[in-house]
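[09:14] KT: can someone run the structure on this one? pasting the chain below
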Amino acid sequence: MVIILILFGFLSGILGGMGMGGGTVLIPLLTIFLSFSQKTAQAFNLFSFLLMCIFALVIHFKNGLVEFKKVIPIILISLPFSFVGSYIAIYIDEKILKIAFGVFLLLISLIEIVKLFKKNKINN
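[09:31] RB: done, structure tokens below
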């Protein structure tokens, strides 16, 4: 099991470092293949995210890709809502969280597919 966790961490770390968000891969891997509960997988993902984002942030900062004037308002707004969302998630049924996460992934996928088609129409 340790080897599988290392592999999953490797995959989510690469995707997280590229900006996609490792949780979009890590949470399904943990819940589907290792039978983690949704809440445990989300907590595991949040903890691993903290560590991964430090390394990614250092690299992006060195490459001049961090614009503090734009980041600070996002952080200030996100912090209280992250706290509220985490608090609410404690009381939401596991099945509802799973469905909500699945719907979120489907919506993001559809948005990206539409953007890809729009971009291809413009380029052709």
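[09:33] KT: thanks! Residues 118 and 124 are 10 Å apart (CA to CA).
[09:34] RB: yep, looked fine to me
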